[in-house]
Amino acid sequence: MNLKSIPFLIISMLLLFQSCNKKADNEELINSVFQTEKAFEKMAADSGIAIAFRNFADENGVILRAKDSIIVGKKNIYEYYNTENTKNATVNWTPDKIEVSDDGTLAYTYGKYTWKIRHSNDSITIQKGIFHTVWKRQPDKKWKYVWD
Q: How many other CB atoms are there within 10 angstroms of residue 13's CB atom?
């Protein structure tokens, strides 16, 4: 080995090591977003949809509902979901895609969801669709949605 090639070899190894660490960090962040999605879904099943949507929202979180309306803020999100229809509903979803920003502060997910609403006559309405959520990492390292 030529002595002149040693600095090049060392720099190459450092860059490779840094790249491997970045990939591992990214996979860890992706997994933490996935775990957040599943904890969100579980809370919706266990504690109610209104409570889950409030608890996983960023302080200024936004939900898009209907074709042209948005609801801003945890309190308003809770009030929007705190209805008889929602109390008699279940929702399930799984992300098909999760991406995390290079700096690890933002992420987005999308996938399929299913809402089931049980009516007073015991009939059930099923609504299926696609969700898209934008997540922001909080100072305590937890993820909260800023857009759903």
A: 10
What CA–CA distances, in Å, run from 71 to 13, 24, 60, 99, 119? 50, 36, 10, 25, 25
Alpha helices in the chain (DSSP H): 5-47, 49-55, 74-81, 84-87
This prediction's pTM: 0.81
Residue 82's CATH number: 3.10.450.50
3-state secondary structure of 39: helix
Domain total of the chain: 1
Per-residue pLDDT tens digits of the chain, which is 148 residues long: 444 545 544 554 444 444 444 555 899 999 999 999 999 999 999 999 999 999 999 999 999 987 789 999 999 999 999 998 888 899 999 999 999 999 999 999 999 999 999 988 989 999 999 999 999 999 999 999 999 9
Query: Which structural domain, as residue segments, surrounds residue 27?
Result: 5-147
User: Counting Cβ atoms within 10 Å, is residue 117 exposed (0-12), middle (13-18) or buried (19+)?
Assistant: middle
